[in-house]
Amino acid sequence: MDKILVFVEAKGDGPRKVSLELLSEGLKLVGSGQFSMEAVFLGKLPGTVKGKILHYTEKLIHVTDPALENYTAEGYAMALAGYARETGAKMILAGATQRARDFLPRVAVLLQTGIASDVTGANWDSNPMTFIRPMYGGRVLAEVSFSAYPAIVTARPNSFGVGASLAQKGEFAEFQAGISPGQVKTSVIKREETTLGKVDLTEADLIVAGGRGLKAAENFRLIEELARTIGATVGATRAVVDAKWRDQADQVGKSGKTVSPKLYMGAGISGAIHHIMGMDTAKVVLAINNDPHAIIFNYANYGIVGDLFEVLPAMTEELRNRLGK
Amino acid sequence: MNVVVLVKQIPDPEALVAIGGDGVSLDIEQKFAMNLFDEFAIEEALRIKAKHAGKVKVITLGSRKAIEALRTGIAMGADEAVLLEDEAFLAGDGYATALVLSRAIAKEPFDIILCGRQAIDDDRGEVGPMVAQFLGLPHVGGILKLDVADGRAVAEVAVEGGKETVEVQLPALFTAQKGLNEPRVPLITGVMRAMKAQIARATAADLGLATAQAGRPGSKVKVVQYSPPKKKPAVQIIPGAPREAAIEAVRILMDVERVL
Ligand SMILES: Cc1cc2nc3c(=O)[nH]c(=O)nc-3n(C[C@H](O)[C@H](O)[C@H](O)COP(=O)(O)OP(=O)(O)OC[C@H]3O[C@@H](n4cnc5c(N)ncnc54)[C@H](O)[C@@H]3O)c2cc1C
Predict the structure, then answer these.
(1) For chain B, which has fewer Cβ within 10 Å, the N-terminal or C-terminal residue?
(2) Which residues in chain B have their CB less than 8 angstroms from residue A72's CB?
């Protein structure tokens, strides 16, 4: 039976949503009878995180080593490659998070195999399995297959659903990575946290984004109020990030983040290709722009041609009424 | 301080991309630009050189048109340029490309390798970390700040919800993120120099590689076929005055699409 490893990351007191998405896909494959699956967690593992992971896997492997205290690409790569080699894994799945995309290419080299990065779909049943990757900012989809193993795949958050948890908890085991001192030449010397606990844009289900049409930094209040009402994350265009109205972390697009929410609402955004490339896998797009010819309408499911200074507060008010807030 | 910068010439983000009749090739409009993130990498290399002296070398793997990216690098102030040009190098995945680049880098001693966070054409973001691993070096991905002193470097990276400061022993590789610096615009004297500059070339044989190790044969991940993305249905404009339209939009999102 071929073994699948799912690299799991934590956020707050639980596993990341994208990790659960991949564990859920993995469980489906296990259900087909041809695969076994293990969740793999590296570094400090809080009890609550462990408990929740165990409901999505038959087995959780906790890889430990003093070198995994803080994240470093070298340490994580050595540890995961070491465990994959030890168990003869056929596939490694992970969410296409900043961290996974940073160290998994190194794992690929260590195991002399390839990686399919940021896939948005998989054909699990075809032989060999194939994976779908958007290229050229989503203008082309490439279907790729592996000629070396383990196949390493990172999947864009929100590409797969989270399935039901298992009634029974999985097994738990530890694995010592055995990294020798001095092998890791990187060390984390400081960590500053600014916006802890917020849902990151890349994993958000709901996004409300604003562009230069907001006219000033303080007007983002309108975007924030709407976002708060529905529990959405705030996004921005490069134009407003460059104008210092919003932080770089909020930028959606080619030179910012790639997002894939259920709902993307964009107000005062023209729809430049560089912006669209970062959000064109959103399921439902609502655009608000006072220019009926704005390009963003070409990429939207719904559009309101009107002044965002009137539309946004009206939407917030209506949502508050309907949601009883 | 010897700094190597890996750059890539990519189709302009607005270039038309069509899928070839065979389904496994792409027909791309001949409009090119240097990958956005690579410009930050070159700029940082030039700043390191200005502070610590030394040499900046730009390397690219590609066909002849990729020379443009190298000339841009020289025009900005790089000292040397190398084009890795061989039929055998083409259509490689991240692994095959990183293997060739790492061999080319290892030809001469260096202290720092810089490259972009990812190429915005194939969007893989694999090559930087892979080159570091092939060379057995540490890397720091997506840096926003870099300070070099005494054989070590201190880099800042944005992590989810905050910022991390990382120290690393040199030699090391860094991938550049938007926000690292403001790339300079080449001066006319630089452009003149770039036009006359000698561009060194290297083939698979020069790097001691068999053709089976590079390009498509050396790839671990292969394209089976290309397909166009699903077309979005035409937009539905919600009519009415702003207030009415807003109320109708809420109704659609909640009751029809059920995304709220
Ligand atoms: C290499 C490169 C990379 C890039 N990467 C990115 C990226 O990652 N992300 C990104 O976003 N951009 C990126 N850009 C920039 C991009 O090309 C656009 O310049 C940018 O997205 C425009 O931002 P905007 O829509 O906020 O502003 P504008 O294009 O100025 O649009 C403002 C819009 O607001 C509308 N508006 C004005 N007033 C109102 C009102 N009262 N009510 C309603 N609507 C109103 C206008 O009709 C207009 O459509 C990149 C550019 C390059 C060259």
Answers:
(1) N
(2) 138, 166
Domain shared by B8 and B101, yes or no: yes
Residue B33 CA, closest ligand 1 atom number = 1
Query: Are both B159 and B249 inside the same structural domain?
Result: no
User: Ligand 1: distance of its center to the CA of A230 in Å?
Assistant: 24
Q: Strand B221-227 to strand B162-169: parallel, antiparallel, or no bridges (unpaired)?
A: unpaired
Which residues in chain A have their CB less than 8 angstroms from residue B166's CB?
72, 186-189
Whole domain around residue B173: which residue ranges?
2-213
**What are the residues whose beta carbons fall under 8 Å from the beta carbon of B9, sequence distance 6 or more?**
B32, B33, B34, B35, B60, B62, B65, B66, B68, B69
Domain definitions of chain A by residue range: 2-176, 201-323
**Assigned architecture for domain A2-176:** 3-Layer(aba) Sandwich (3.40)
pTM of the model: 0.95
Digits of tens for pLDDT over chain A (325 positions)?
A: 899 999 999 998 999 999 999 999 999 999 999 999 999 999 999 999 999 999 999 999 999 999 999 999 999 999 999 999 999 999 999 999 999 999 999 999 999 999 999 999 999 999 999 999 999 988 899 999 999 999 999 999 999 999 999 999 999 999 999 999 899 999 999 999 877 667 889 999 999 999 999 999 999 999 999 999 999 999 999 999 999 999 999 999 999 999 999 999 999 999 999 999 999 999 999 999 999 999 999 999 999 999 999 999 999 999 999 999 7
Report CB contact under 8 Å: A301, B178. Answer: no
Q: Chain B closest CA to A282's CA: distance in Å? A: 11
Please give the structure tokens belonging to residue B249. 């939009």
Whether residue A278 has its Cβ less than 6 Å from ligand 1: yes
Q: Are B219 and B96 in contact (CB under 8 A)?
A: yes
